[in-house]
Amino acid sequence: MPQEWTEGVQVSDRRRGSDRVAQQIQDAVATGALIVGERLPNERELSRLFGVSRATIREAVRRLETEGMVKVRRGVSGGTFVSQPDPGRLGLALLALIRFGEATARDFTEFRAGFEPETAWWAAERADAADRQRLSALAEDVMARARVEDLSWPEFAEGDIRFHEALADASKNPIRVAVMLAVHEAFRQSSATIVRHDSSAWRIDQAQQLAAVAAAVAAADADEARRCMAVHVQVNAAAVQAIVESDGPGGPADGNAAKKRDKGVGQHG
Fold first, then answer.
1. Taking the model in full, what pTM does it have?
2. What is the torsional sign of CA 48, 51, 55, 59?
């Protein structure tokens, strides 16, 4: 165990003790003080080190194990070892940050304005034949969903989400994949603000925008893919802004009121 890590920990403060412990272990991994494959001290030693109960340590380890940050091995040679989470688990960890941070729909449209067009650019640069075929098929699926009159909003949104995740996969960048998974899991678990803008014409327009992105990726035209995705994000951002303005200051789509209601994001696309 690197000396700088054991000297740097702090005993539990006013925050929940297990969260404090888990965060400091995560920080140690992020800074390289703990490396993948390294074994953590046993439960008794961690309890002494952090100044918390062994039950608190067990809870922190369970959280880290769920997030893929550690692996617990049983037996004589067992213990708790630092591990490297896959993109999906990173996405879930980021989702927790998003939800606890109570990001609003407006926060997400601002983030997406830069992130998603660049993801489309890289997808057009790196997509292979399977990626291009998958994106085209998913764009067709979104259009088919848009034309079903009685399809629920979550069912339509799921097709849209799958397209965006496939686009991130095509970028061949595991960080983009992890972020996209986190963002879209938050979409699934929140109330969808933009459903208030929903209509058959809206859904078809959304499907056409995604089809344009898929066509640009298929043509390996990175600039056009970025432009088409920027249009898609801007259309969604405008819809969210219109809802925020219609609610007015302190309304359900604004500020703290939105945070209390949604505890996450409020739109898809």
1. 0.64
2. negative
Phi and psi at residue 261, to the nearest 5°: -80, -50
Tell me the CB-side half-sphere exposure of residue 154, using CA atoms within 13 A. 7
- For residue 263, CA distances in Å to 93, 154, 165, 268 come to 16, 18, 22, 15
Amino acid at 260: K
Angle at 41 between CA 39 and CA 44, to 5 degrees: 150
Q: Is the dihedral of CA 64, 70, 72, 76 positive or negative?
A: negative
Options 1.10.10.60, 3.30.420.40, 3.30.499.10, 1.10.10.10; CATH of 3-82: 1.10.10.10
- Residue 80's beta-bridge partner residues? 72
Where does the chain show beta strands of DSSP type E? 70-73, 79-82
- For the chain, the domains span 3-82, 88-262
Q: Could you give the CA distance from residue 70 to residue 216 in angstroms, rounded to a whole number?
A: 41
Q: What is the pLDDT of residues 7-34, one digit of tens each?
A: 555 554 444 678 888 888 888 887 778 8
In contact, 184 and 164? CB cutoff 8 Å = yes
* CA dist., res. 100 & res. 48, Å (int): 29
pLDDT in tens, 242-256: 776 776 554 444 444
pLDDT-based confidence at 168, cuts 50/70/90?
A: very high
CA dihedral 53, 57, 63, 68 (to 10 degrees): 180
DSSP for residue 196: G
Fold of 88-262: Four Helix Bundle (Hemerythrin (Met), subunit A) (1.20.120)
